[in-house]
Specification:
Largest sheet: none
Radius of gyration: 19 Å
Strand content: under 5%
Number of helices: 11
Length: 250
């Protein structure tokens, strides 16, 4: 991941073996699943506060991952991306929580709040994982005998920081059906907004079209988030128990 090494000054490393890939995947997948579930839960909880009980009535207003997990987006896609990229990249999602904007007490306000909720939660989780990284480091200094296990725990926290910032930034991209498209819609003049909102009728096709027809566009849009994540990691790395936190070098 050259874009990561550029920020953390990490030297090139050989392609990891299958055991190292599997070990890191076991650490990263639970964090990813928890993060996408929390993202969807936030949408449902925000919608309920705005007057829409759709998610609650359908049993989706829960942090239990089972109702939220999509076999493809939550499990298979992350595995394919991870092992296909040699452990340099993974991503995923959960089943979108159903909402009914017509139930919002104030449509515009409700739509903005609900659309922003998942992103806010992911950014909050990045800070929580950062705090846990520091707490684990302080524990390691107090009890050196626990260093090996705490080193692994900090590696998991690094994944939590990285994945949550990437999830937040990705969902802010103003392309339907991502959350950012809802926010962008409300920033447009009414006539333009109606035409732009019509793109959402094509589901995920607009997003897939951008990924296929403009290679590198999504990566470019995520550049600020990558540097933000690197900046946050620089703040917590002084509390590292060992070198295991560094998910960018193997």
């Amino acid at each position: 991941m050259t874009w990561v090494r550029a920020g953390l000054k990490v030297p090139p490393s050989p392609r990891p073996g299958i055991r190292a890939l599997l070990s890191d995947f076991i650490l990263a997948l639970p964090v990813l699943v928890f993060s996408v579930v929390a993202h969807e839960y936030a949408h449902g909880a925000a919608a309920l506060r705005q007057g829409d009980d759709t998610a609650l009535m359908l049993g989706r207003l829960t942090l239990n991952p089972v109702p939220h997990i999509d076999p493809w987006m939550s499990l298979l896609l992350p595995a394919l991306l991870w092992f296909g990229s040699g452990g340099s990249f993974t991503f995923g999602g959960a089943k979108p929580v159903p909402v009914n904007p017509r139930k919002y007490r104030q449509y515009r306000r409700g739509d903005i709040i609900v659309s922003s909720a998942g992103v806010v939660v992911n950014l909050g989780l990045a800070l929580v994982f950062s705090a846990l990284f520091v707490a684990i480091g302080l524990l390691g200094r107090a009890v050196p005998d626990l260093a090996a296990g705490l080193d692994t725990a900090q590696r998991m926290m690094t994944w939590g920081i990285w994945l949550n910032i990437m999830l937040a930034a990705f969902n802010l991209i103003p392309i339907p059906p991502l959350d950012g498209s809802h926010l962008f819609y409300h920033a447009l003049p009414p006539a333009w907004g109606v035409r732009y909102r019509a793109i959402a009728n094509y589901g995920a096709l607009p997003l897939l079209a951008v990924m296929l027809l403009v290679p590198g566009a999504i990566s470019f849009l995520l550049t600020p988030a990558r540097y933000g994540a690197v900046g946050l990691l620089r703040l917590v790395v002084p509390y590292a128990v060992g070198d295991g936190w560094n998910i960018f070098a193997r």
